[in-house]
Design goal:
single chain; about 280 residues; alpha/beta; D-Maltodextrin-Binding Protein, domain 2; 2 domains; six-stranded mixed sheet; 12 strands; about 25% strand; elongated
Length: about 280
Amino acid sequence: MKKLLVSFLLLMFSNISLADTSVEIVPTSTLKGPQGSVASAVVELSKSAGFQIKATQKNGCGEAVSYFENAKDPVAIIWSSTMFKNSKESKQNCIINFERATPVAVTFSSYDLCVLNGRKLESGKTYKLGNNKFNPQKTQLEEFNKNRYKIKFDNVTYASSGAAVQGLLNKEVDIVYSATPNAVSAIKAGSIKCLYSTGSSKYGQQPMSKFIANSPLNDYSLGMMVFVKNLSAKQINDLQKSLQKGFAKQMANKELINSKVAPNKTDVNKFIATAKIYETYN
């Protein structure tokens, strides 16, 4: 009888433990972009530790942050380095309470300047620049116009980096400034050539500093950090261990750089400080 009771109690507590591993992860941007790659990796890798994580799209960063802040059950959010700027522009609260959240992973997307394959930029000329509407366009245009080759750019706005790349392919613009992952399929197809990058050299890109000297754009990248709430210390440790098995590799396969599991306080403070700098870009 005692053995049966012990077995029953073990089963009961086991079921409670399994229930606690259900986690919802919400992005602060679309799941169709880089944040979708981050969410997919977290969902897949965490299964080995018994987590059942589900990615759910919300209606904007304000709703995602509100959901995360008010959740009573285990929850995760993908918070990006554009959120201070997004809060300012959208008049929403897109900023989480960092003191009540635990970071578990971080990754970054570099940005490239790309042209149609076979085309070269000529000194002293004016070109149409395709740009994502979410980028700090005025600041970027001012910086790009300080380039070493006295090239002038006129900005053409698109709804996303992907749409801007398509604009280049359609010859609506002469050059595009795009998040590296959104340019890769066209690079691999041989349609475009990316000349300069803020962090990638995989496809023969030169550092952006070769194009613009002493510019804040030379180090510009979109940062994405995964935070969790309402998980025990053991659960967080188990989650991080599961991510250690392949997060950086999966991010590299998606053209994301400088990936790290279990970012420390210094990493988080630098991430937040950079996000605050981006808030001043316009």
